[in-house]
Amino acid sequence: MGEKLAFIGLGVMGRNMAARLVRAGHDVSVFNRTQAKADEFVAAIGGTAQRSAAAAAEGARFVLICVGNDDHVRQVSLGAGGVLPAMEPGAVLIDHSTTSADLARELAREAAKRQVGWLDAPVSGGQQGAEEGSLTVMAGGQLDHFEQARPVFAAYSKRAQLLGPAGSGQLAKMVNQICIAGVLQGLAEGLHFAELAGLDAAAVIDVISQGAAQSWQMVHRHQAMLDDSFDFGFAVDWMRKDLGFALAEARRNGARLPITALVDQFYADVQALGGARWDTSSLIRRLRPTAK
Predict the structure, then answer these.
(1) Active-site residue among 4, 113, 173, 241?
(2) Helical axes 101-113 vs 168-196, angle rounded to 10°
(3) CATH topology for 4-164?
(4) What are 224-276's pLDDT values in tens digits?
(5) What span, in angstroms and rounded, lies between the C-alpha atoms of 162 and 141?
(6) 244, 229, 19, 225: which is closest to 127 by C-alpha?
(7) Is-above-0.85 flag for pTM?
(8) Per-residue pLDDT reduced to its tens digit, 128-180
(9) Annotated catalytic, 292?
(10) What does the DSSP 8-state code read for residue 88?
């Protein structure tokens, strides 16, 4: 049987995740800051549109959030019309946004005061993964809440893993972004080198993607780099936000992240080129003459 759910935030990721929940047979109430998006979702997919996050959360066993940053999550959780005051004891709040680990711990404490469960559960896999139901969920929180949420995660993920107490999901997402940043910069430099060396870069990728150099980024983002076309995907602004969380956490725990700090500055260069909303594969743009 489907669960009564609330989904807060219908951006690129949230809309597709919520759609998969509706299609899986769950009873989904949605809220989005732009009401037209919620109304369009219901007309196209189903579910019920609500005028506030609190209204969506009323009576829901699971409330899922997928919004932009710490301030947005705090607002829809604890602000006027937020979900936590409206949730019933025993319900579980799941945050799929990418935020600081500090915020995850703060909201876990606030949820516990209300006898509400908490999972910080950022995802990886991008828009394509959300559409196909192949996301990876990295979760922090209590085991019982995680096990309760497994059937919900199954609608849009191929793997969900509990990694520790509250905040652990966000820390794991930082690891994910650290790794992606380094791989994208390496891919950008490799393709740049291939082009200047007079090679057929697409043919090179076709060969090396079958060997040890293969990565998701190579398979899915090399063509965007070759086409110099970045008007899609995960925005540079959002990657810099995420890397900022990782760098701040590293200053706290003593981790040394020289490559991450460098790539973060390379993304600042991309922003200066007007690429704040370009996909993260746009790192190659700063290596080309058109970047000067």
Answers:
(1) 173
(2) 150
(3) Rossmann fold (3.40.50)
(4) 999 999 999 899 999 999 999 999 999 999 999 999 999 999 999 999 999 99
(5) 7
(6) 19
(7) yes
(8) 999 999 999 999 999 999 999 999 999 999 999 999 999 999 999 999 999 99
(9) no
(10) P
